[in-house]
Amino acid sequence: MLLVGVEYKVIFFSESLGEIAMGYVSGHYNKVTAIGIAIALAAAMKKAEENETMVSLGICFQRARYMIKQVLEGAGVADGLWITAINLPDAVTVASRDELINMLAGIVKGRDFLLLS
Question: 6, 35, 60, 84 - which has most CB atoms within 10 Å?
Fold first, then answer.
């Protein structure tokens, strides 16, 4: 990421399963929802394991999908860049090969969005 001039301002670390458990225990969502989130997380992490890099972005899910579409079109590929977590309403984690992550970072850097890690 440093190769494209991205400077890190904030780095977040989290234990996603712990966050799922906390949401369930606090009553924020029920057991079925917690299990569904855990299953979705496992599926996303399976895709992430096949890739080299993950990055967190200070953008909402919809904006991330739009930027991912731009990167994939620019790279001439149909897939290979995935949202692996929705951390906050305005923060997502994305996984891919280094070259696609670097292309995404270039788009993020060119706009006023926060690259979290």
Answer: 84
Domain ranges of the chain: 12-115
pLDDT in tens, 65-84: 999 999 999 999 998 898 88
Tell me how far apart the alpha carbons of residues 65 and 103 are, in angstroms, rounded to a whole number.
14
* Three-state secondary structure readout of the chain: CHHHCCCCCCCCCCCHHHHHHHHHHCCCCCHHHHHHHHHHHHHHHHHHHCCCEEEEEECCHHHHHHHHHHHHHHHCCCCCEEEEEEEECCEEEEEECHHHHHHHHHHHHCCCCEECC
Report the pLDDT value the prediction gives residue 2, as an integer from 0 to 100: 44
> For the domain 12-115, what is the CATH code?
3.30.70.250
- Residue at 114: amino acid letter: L
Per the CB < 8 A criterion, the answer to whether 51 and 96 are in contact is yes
Q: pTM of the full predicted structure?
A: 0.58
Please choose, from the candidates 22, 64, 16, 18, the residue with its C-alpha nearest in 3D space to the C-alpha of residue 43.
16
